[in-house]
Each structure stands twice: as C-alpha cells, then as structure tokens.
Records
---
Amino acid sequence: MVALVLLAPEILHPAGWSFLDGVDLIFHEAGHLMFMPFGETLYLMGGSLFQVLLPSVLAGVFFRRGEGVNAAVVLLWAAQNLGNVSVYIADAQERALPLLGDDPDHHDWWQILGGWNALPLCTTLGHMVWFLGVAVALLSVGVAYHAAWADEGTSRRSKRF
C-alpha cells in the first residue's frame, strides 16, 4: 500500500481520465441531487461533498466492523476523490476542465467561489484539499498496517492453543 501511495501520484493528482473517475462522476452528480433541497450553495457543493463522503462513510463502517483492509481501500478511494476535487477547485478561475454539457458557467466551484468573491483563492483552496487527500492516503496506509498487525496478532494467539 505504501508503494501505491508513493509511486502513483496520479491517484492524488489526476492527469487523465480513468474508469474510477467515471464511477466518481456518477456519485458527484448524485450528490447534487441529494443536496438540492438544502439551498444553492449546498447543491453546488453537494457533488464534491458526496463523492468524498461516500467512501469516507464506507471506511467508517468497515473499520467499525473490524474490516481494516476494506476500510483502508475505501479511504484510498476517498483520497483519490479529494485529489479530483482539488483539481476541480483549482480550475475554478480558468474553467478549462471538460464538463458535462460543455458550458463553463456550470462549473460548480466557479459559481461557489465567484459568489463569495473568492475566485483568486481557488488555487490555494485546491492545494489545501490536495494536502487533505495526501493525509487521507497516509491514513489509509496506517489503517492497512493496523489491520495487518491486528491480523498477525490474532493468528499468533490462535496458534498457541
């Protein structure tokens, strides 16, 4: 898992489109629908929020069930989503990313940050979210090691009897 984080920076800073990005897009769009009743700002943020919250909640469920490896995998998925969201936020001023519908005025973070008169902060905010993604990726490594250590301890105890 450490090699995955250290040797595959594209997980946290995507340069192209992958299968997982398509899955993330489905949850992103679903997030808009789920957050629609809570006002325009949460509607706009809902896509990015849901695509990060879904794997984060799943990680918590797996961790509580004692399934540390599963928790680590979906935490890495959450980190990948934070990487994607960071790129999306950082793109708010330029709006160069391809969007569904091809209308650059539908860029969620351009609308959010523009409404807050904070567009010049898009790169800084994108970097902050990226660093959060790095922290979550490292947390996933810690969870995986904890799970491996716990499994090793369990197998040693079971061999004694």
---
Amino acid sequence: MPQRSDWSDQPCPIARGINVVGDPWTLLILREALSGARRFDEFKRRVGASDNILAARLAAMVADGLLVQRPYSQGDRPRQEYVPTGAAADALPILHAYAAWSHAHRPSSTEEPVFTVSCRTCGHSTDRVEFCDNCGAALEVGNVVWARPGRWQGRAVNLSAGGPPGVDQGRA
C-alpha cells in the first residue's frame, strides 16, 4: 500500500507510528483483529472495506508486523487467516485513546449505548487508556471488555492473559 508520505526514518516517534497505524482502515482492521476477527470475509463484513482496499491493508499490516498469516485450509485453494501479533496487542491503548477522544470531541447523537471500555479485574468501566481508573489494573488485551454500540454491542476483546489463543507473541 503506497503511503502519502514515508515517515519511517523520521526522528519523531509519532511520525514513524503514523506509517504503521495512521491509516483509518488499518485502525478499523486492528480493532476487529483484537476483537477476534481472523478471516478476510470477517474483516470485510465488520469494517465494510472493498476487497482491494482490505487486501492491501492486510498485506501492509503483515509487512509491518501487526498481523501474521496462517493457513486454515488446504486443498486446491489454500486460505489464510490473519492473527494479531504482540505489536497489535500493544496498540490497544491507541484504540482506547481514539475512542475517548471521539466521545469527548465528536459525540454521536445516534449512539445508544455508547462504546465503553471495562476492566475485567474489577468490572468497572473506565475512561483511562492504559490503567483502570477504578482499581488501577493494566488495561491489556487479556483484561479488557469492549461494549460496542449497534450490531457489535457486547463484543469483547476476550483474549487470555499472557497472549490470546492464536496470537503470535513475537514483537515486530
């Protein structure tokens, strides 16, 4: 996927990060990968991207170390699933920060109920990005539940501590 600009060699870490997670489709795909989507058709249904956009973003996310490809069928037409890496799990605070910023500065008049982030340790919702504001527990992939509005309401980031099943723990 060609970038509008290549900031991969910039001294600023924000600029370098934009090269990897700055694309809106990438953030939506990352959201779904952390929520359990693994297959092309799942991502397509959940994010609504066209085939060519989705294929390009998935390939870029594999190249950038956010996802790894694993075969899930054999035969005449082998298929691949996309599994989030440790680098993808480490991006969870970015998604939380986007959600918090959007609630504060771009509220939706139709969103009932709202997107919430809850801590599995204490069960309370939190407005913090990395730690629960009620009990102080780390908001990591294995300790977070997302309550999402609309058709995805209640879908959780339900990944086990120490690495979710099927998640590649390598760091990109």
---
Amino acid sequence: MIRIGMLTPSSNTCLEPVTYRLLDGARDLASAHFARVPVTRIALDGGSDAQFAAEPMLAAARQLADARVDVIAWNGTSGSWLGVDHDRQLAAAITAETGVPATTSTLALLDACAAYGVTRLGLAVPYTSDVAERIVTTYAAEGLDCALAEPFGVSDNEAFARIPETDVARQIEQAAADAHAVAVVCTNVYGAGAAAGLETTLGIPVFDSVTATLWKALDLAGAHPALDGHGDLLRSGSLRAGFQRVLTELRTAIGADRTTLRLDLPGHGLHVDLTAGEALGPGVRSIRRDAGLDQRRLNTVEWLERHRIPLVQPHFRDDPRPPQALIDVYGVRAQLLAPVVRDTDMTGWISAHSLAEREWSATGRAAMAAAIADVHHLLDTYGKAHAA
C-alpha cells in the first residue's frame, strides 16, 4: 500500500476529512498521513509570507519521512500567490532533505490544467481581493488566462472551512463562464463535493485543491489513480497527463507542428470528435476544442479504418483527401496518421501535422509507432476499468 505524507496548515479542518473521504473505497490503494505547520492567516504581507518559510516545512517533512511515506505533498495553495517558483523550490528542498518525491497543491493544479489542455481557467477562491488578484497574476505567468469569481473576502484561514458548500458551488458556477475548467484554490474550503457534482452540469472539469493534491500525490507515487465518484481528475487525470507526455515527446521526436490523439473511451469522457490530447509548436493554433467535424466520416479516417496501418501524407495532392478545414483554417499541408487498434476495434488514432509539405522519414514513422505503443500501455494501465 502506498503511504502519502501531507504537510497541512495548522488551522485547516477540511483537507484531512475530505482526503479520507476521497480515499474511501480505495483503502487498499493508499493511506494518508499528516503533519501540521503553523498557518493561521492569508494576506499579502511579511507576517503572512513568513508562515510559508522552508524550515518549518522541512522539519515537518522529516517527521513524515520517519513514517517511510512514498510521497510528500504541501497541501496548501500558498504558491498561488507567493509564486510558483516558491513551490518548485520547496518541493525540490523536501526531496533533497528526505529523499522522497514531493509536490504541492499549486503544482498539482497547474499539472491538472496541463493534462486537460486548459488555457482559460475560472478561479473560485475564499481570499481577499488583493490575494485573489495576485493569484490571477501568478497563473498568467504560467500561461493561464484566468476569470475570477467574486472572492469571499476572508483572511482567517480557520474561517475558510465555515463557508457553506452551497456558497462554494455558486462561486464555481460564476467562475465557469467561458472557461475550459474551474479551480477551487484553497485546501480549507469544502469544494470537493461541489466540484464533482457540478462537472456534469457545467460540462467542464472542476479542479478542487484537495482533490488535485491527492491526485498528484497518488500519481507521483506510481499509484495509477482511476477512482470513480469524485470527479474527472481522480478518474482520468493521470491517463490524460500520460497522453500529453506521449504527444509532447512525439512532436519533438518527429519535428511536427502539432500532434493530437483522438479516442473513443466513454468511461473517461473521451470521444474522437474532441482530442484526448494535443501538443503544439510555438505559435501553432490549437485544434483541441474544435468539434465541428464528424471525425469518423472523414476520408482519411475511413482509410485508416479500412487499412489499419499508418497513413503517410507528405502532401495532399492524392487521395484520401483530408477535410478542407484542416487546410484552410489550420494551415496543415502534410500529416502522418496512425490507428490505435484495441482488440478488433479502431479505438482512435494519433495525428502529426506539418504546416509545410514534407517527407515523413523512417525515423519519424518509428517514433509514431513508439507513441502508439505508449498509448496502448497507458490504456492497459489506466483505462481498462473504464473502457466503454
């Protein structure tokens, strides 16, 4: 069984019971263990900032390491206003001190956004307006355009847990307008239950900080989380993150401008008309959320379905022709497609796009074959329990 060590703000009364609830039904998978560090107030001043100094965190981390935990997480969102580098340095220091992999709530939220390709993020926070605006600035530096719901205006950390869950739900709904996802940024707010319930209504992921921290800790410890009943991140986030990694590595290896993966995997909320992942070169337009085409009826996809081998197109002068929108709207001039065949079904395919005509070398085709193998491995690891 995996042991998760969590550094907890001393005045937090939410994250421990919520974490236990999230792990209920997966007790053979992992156990959670907590050490507290003094945190009572959230503000933009030296006194508040001092609560998040490294040494108290490291002292608590050393205590957790005595329990031989497999991962240590700072279960607090202070990096969201102190700066992401603060948390990166903290995680590195914890690992250097204890030899245990480490993460934080802020790093987990950013990793969740990366896994789902989020660039427009709604924020639901309990803090004062100046702290909330600092979070917007911090996340903007990480490539996230944030829409901020009206903050609750609270600075007493213990009081965050007294905010009714119904109020948190309304704040999430307010933050969701025109967003790819919503993040509840605070680990002492009861957002996990509301987040999981609202995903279906809103049609977008909702990343609660407590849930995201547990997800990333499990993933970092190698637990392959695929837990039902608590929202998409715990069910499918690690699978999606794996897809992103495969596509990013493929794009670099093959020299493509864009790589995408499309899959029919209903148990993970995936269907081929929207991509399961996408990696982009600098300045290349995203195709991730364009659902304007019936993908299964495209000439190129029907060709893949018939032949079940890679389709190599150094140009588009020969059949099968791709959709004209791919050329006119997205500027694609060459592509390499490879099917993902599970048992007897073509579950999906990987696409590599070039904005200029080009030959696809044997090395590039080998990289595509390796990427397909990696997708199969991910589906075997994470996807079987939820396949159709």
---
Amino acid sequence: MRKFTGLRTKDLINVGIYSALYFICMGIAEGLTTLITGLLFPGFTSIFVPAMVGLLAGPVYMLLCQKVPRFGAITIMGVLMGLFFLISGHFAFAFIPYAVCGFLADVIQTVVGQGDPQKKGLRIGSYLVFTFGSLGPVLPLWFMKNAYVASLVKRGKSQDYINVLFSHITLPTFIACILVTLVGALVGAYFGDKLVSKHFTSGAGRG
C-alpha cells in the first residue's frame, strides 16, 4: 500500500503538463468529431464530442494517475478543464461537471483505490467518471434550453444557428450521448491503460 502525501512542486508541474495534453486531446476530439459528423451525421456534433474525448484522452489520464498518485491531482485537472470551458465562452454551467467529476474520480482513484496499480477496475472507473465532466458544455442543451438560447443570442448567434443546434436535442439523443460517451471512455481507458502499462511502468510514482 502506498503512502500518500500532499502534492509537491514536481507534482503540480506534472499536473500542468498532463492537463495541457488533455486539453490538446479535447481540441483534437472536437475537430475530428466536427469533421466526421459533418460528413455523416450533420447536426450531431455536440452529442459525440464527449465520446471522442473519452476515446482519445485515456493515455493522458492513466499517465497522470501513475506519475502523480496523490489526492488532488485529478481534482486540479478537472477544475482546469472546467475553467477552460468558462474562458472559451461556453455556458457558465459547463464548469461544474468537470469540477465535480474530477473530485469524484480523484476519490475513486486515490482514496478508494489508493493509487494501487493493481486496482485496474477502479482506475478505469475513475476515468469513466472524469470523462463525463466533458458533458458540461452540452448538458444545458437538454436541461437549460432557455438560458442557453439567451447566452447564444448574447454572443451574437443567429436564429438559424440556434434552430440547427437544437434540431436534434431530444430525450433519445440525450440517452445516445450518455451511451456513446460511456463506450468511448471505456475503449479509451482500456487502450490507455494498456499503453501506459507497457511503456511507462518502470519506476512509476516513486519519490
């Protein structure tokens, strides 16, 4: 069983590095999803972005768990991702899911799992929870439509843009969004864990 201490300067630097990498994965995921859905499923971009984030960011998350096996690292990364949503002009509510999911994922990984590399199921579970934080920008489409529309109007979006954005926002597409996000995160966690275990295990988390 590992002994956990507070985050050190080196840990915070690593959190910053992996948060930047995770941010890059989010950008790539949004670009790829926009391209794919634009060709195959026009209007469904928002529904599939969280799943693509979960698919691509698994290795980054697993590396963070390995390199900084201390409580607080995952929480900080979640808060940073939430702040990115706020700074980039997303609906204010978008900050909350990543902050909450980051904290819960941290508890699963470093409190319940104690950062033990043998507890693969808990590590994957923590990643699933963390990935659902990426739903922050899209949840208001279903649950806070009026407020979301008002924010779009304030940002200068046209009524045609708003109509297209909400044309596929239904209960079935919400369920689909949850399911594809779960699948994307599971696949991303599996391959991320395999990749990290194969190439980055020696001497991990020491010091």
